[in-house]
Amino acid sequence: MSSTRFQEDPPVARPHTRAAAALVAVSALALAGCSGGNSANTDADGGDSASGTLVVDTAFSLETGDPGRNYVPTGNMVLHAVYDTLLTLEGDDTTPQPALATMEQNDDATEFTFTLDEDRVFSDGSPVTADDVVFSLERVAGMTDSKANFLMAGITVEKVDDATVVLKTEKPSLQLPAIVTNPSLSILNAEEVEANGGATDTADAAQTFLDGTSAGSGPYLLDSLDLTTQVVLVENPEYNGPTPAAYDKIVVRNVTESATQLINLKGGDSHIAVDLNGDQVEGLGDGFTVDSVPSAETIFLLINQNPEVGPATASPKFAEAVRYALDYDKILELAGAGAEQATGVIPPMFAGALADGADQDLDRAQAALAESGYAGETVKLQFPNDNPVGGVEFTPVAERVQDQLKAAGINVELAPAPFATEIDPYVNGTEAFSMWYWGPDYADSSSFLPFGPGEKVGLRAGWDAAASADIAALVDAARNATSVEERTEAFRAYATAMQQSGPFVPLIVPGNNIAADDTVSGLTYNPTWTLDLTALSPTQ
Question: May I ask the CATH architecture of the domain 4-292+513-538?
Fold first, then answer.
């Protein structure tokens, strides 16, 4: 019945610089960023151990230990180690691979059959069954107050037998395999969760239970969770999957400043620093390894097409003028290691991404500006000034954009504000000219269709479907493709059209820079869970 099947053997991940952590135990950690002195270099027995404690520093975005209510990066990192999903991602490859199940799809990409590995068990030793899958996914679908609820939109779940589940959609959904890799759609022990308040509707009350324990089949167990200081994971003795725990314990600490993460790493108080910038990792010497790669996020300019919001920006020719006025190489200089020029609204790691971005062309910029009706008025460039992305600070980027646009004849006034202040006008579409960033909801090209006309981000730019019927049709073609080849070509056509005439100017794909001491291997960036804790192991 299948046109596509995910086989048992995953492809080899693309190579990157590797890094990781050590074999040690850590003393009690009371405060974020304060680690009690070289804790990462002492194991429980006072000597070297092949399976001690791994200490990871990251700036927390953490709300719960309940997968179905989680939708933030640190939560994804932690929960990916505790729970399994039907499919998963290996290394930095964005092609879904089997985890708890293999998958077959029908030719229309509307029916996806998952066959469970019947040997897999939860942390209490009970088998993972189709009933657990149905409960877990229907729970997310039924919890309308969960941020992750939208992942199940338009998806129905049916049990075929104890080892088989079918997910169905009304329209083609080649993105569904990527969606089910998200840790929010982890498979929970239904009996245990239901006994502790779990339900498949708004009556669900299992979060408190799941914040204090784990009901999954992953290689680690949740030992303790403090949303402001640290999460402690321990080995799951019942785990019988392909990636057993390499450490007795993993301590993930909330260290909000990258400078402090660097100090802890260099001082031996941690093994891994997740949130370093390009300059910081370039300064590391011997004894450390780094994974420095382009992230899945894009920093872009938004140019509002609504004349009531932006009288000076509403002409498509104004957006063209901005696009070709910029010197992207000079802007990229501000981004540091791992960063790349954004070649379009789809980042390089995803299918359909363009090979090359825009090049500066001042003659074209000035010609477009003359056609736009722009009369020299000052345009405000709004942006959040307290929320760097991948180590990229927005203020220096905005200053460089301002200088380059001035050289092309566009007068720009910088209007920075805190993220909390700036987010509402951006979401509500009341910013005429702004700089923002976007990352995927899940590891798939379809996460970037919201930039299209009439879509979520397109509407924030005052760009409805009627304003560009051709590009709106390309969005539909990409969304409804039924083969990988057709889909990739549709996304490439969409990205090309967006780069030629959309109201967005992609600037930078920031680097993701994770550093570690050289006692650990397996460090690789992932667009969903950032760092795969299950792939880390002591260096041999």
Answer: 3-Layer(aba) Sandwich (3.40)
